[in-house]
Design goal:
This protein has one domain. Helix content is 84%, strand content 0%. The chain contains 4 helices and no strands. α1 runs parallel beside α3 and α2 runs antiparallel to α3.
């Protein structure tokens, strides 16, 4: 897949992860899974757009809502 398509798809995946946390029935585990997928592309491409969405996802995944999922994503991001 061309780099541009990888970046675009991963950016939209990160946006979807944020949307999953903000929906009527938030699913922090699914959001974390989507975020982890986007992190891989962010590392490969250096995309600032993806990283912005992942920062938003970090804020949405509060410890009160889902401590284990949020911790997992934050740890993975910090190694990026």
């Amino acid at each position: 897949m061309p780099a541009r398509m990888t970046r675009d798809r991963s950016h939209l995946t990160a946006k979807l992860a944020v949307a999953v946390t903000q929906g009527h029935t938030p699913d922090p585990n699914r959001a974390t899974q989507l975020g982890m997928t986007a992190i891989d592309a962010a590392q490969r491409t250096g995309s600032a757009r993806i990283m912005r969405e992942l920062h938003t996802l970090d804020r949405e995944l509060t410890p009160a809502a889902c401590s284990r999922a949020a911790t997992s994503l934050a740890l993975r991001r910090s190694s990026a």
